[in-house]
Amino acid sequence: MVEFSEEINRRFNIETIIPSRGESFIINARNVIETDEKVRPDNSFKRLQVVEKLESIKEEVDELSYILKSDLKQEKTDLEIDELLVKLKNIEKSILEALK
């Protein structure tokens, strides 16, 4: 990074600033001003994505529940019900592993 800074200074006669992690600057056409404000990464969108994903999963589980209850009202063989139980146990296992 220092080499790049020196090259810019040599070629264009422009003083360069290599900020440290968390430093903040205000840049305009005339000058650069260092601020005391520390830059914090914006995680609000990531949190929103988590909430949206949880809502999506909840809707899918509700839909699955409705479909399975409707299917159970029809005649099902013991084998079909056993297969369904295995699938539900796998879903439960995946949820529990995600919570760890």
Describe the structure.
This protein has 100 residues and is mainly α. It folds into 2 domains: 2-35, no CATH class; 44-99. Helices cover 63% and strands 8% of the residues. The chain has 3 helices and 2 strands, in the order αββαα. It has helices at residues 2-12, 44-73, 78-99, and strands spanning 24-27, 32-35. Strands 1-2 form a two-stranded antiparallel sheet. It starts with a helix and ends with a helix. The mean pLDDT is 82. This is Metallo-beta-lactamase family protein.
Q: Oligomer, anyone?
A: single chain
What is the count of distinct domains?
A: 2
Q: Class by helix and strand content? A: mainly alpha
Supply Rg.
29 Å
Strand content: 5-15%
| Strand line-up of the largest beta sheet | 1-2
Number of helices: 3
Organism: Acetivibrio straminisolvens JCM 21531
Protein name: Metallo-beta-lactamase family protein
